[in-house]
Design brief:
By secondary structure, this protein is mostly helical. It contains six helices and no strands.
Length: about 120
Amino acid sequence: MHPIIAKTFGGLSMAYYVRQFIFGLIFPAIMIFMGFNSGAGVSAGMIALMVVSSLLYPYSRFAYESIMDFVMGDNMFVVNAIMMLFVKLLTMMLCWFFAIFVAPLGLLYLYFRHSRLERQS
């Protein structure tokens, strides 16, 4: 495998990628369900966009979580569980819908992180 691909797309653990990928399938499932219930169906372009967003979602989520880890540090917040789940779902939805734009940041971060770790070894 080419080093750039290995450091970027292969940079996440398989467990993390699969977990985030499965969570990311919630949104295309909802969109397909809504499309068929409205009678309009789902266009080929929309399916292509859903496939790309679903494949890039784990990298988008990784970028978001990395930024939040940097900003929040090791602080712990005690909040209402319903509010926390709503905010979590909202951030998941935003990461999925903007995956095409956010995932390159995650891929770039993975590349530089793995390159730095490679030099330190």
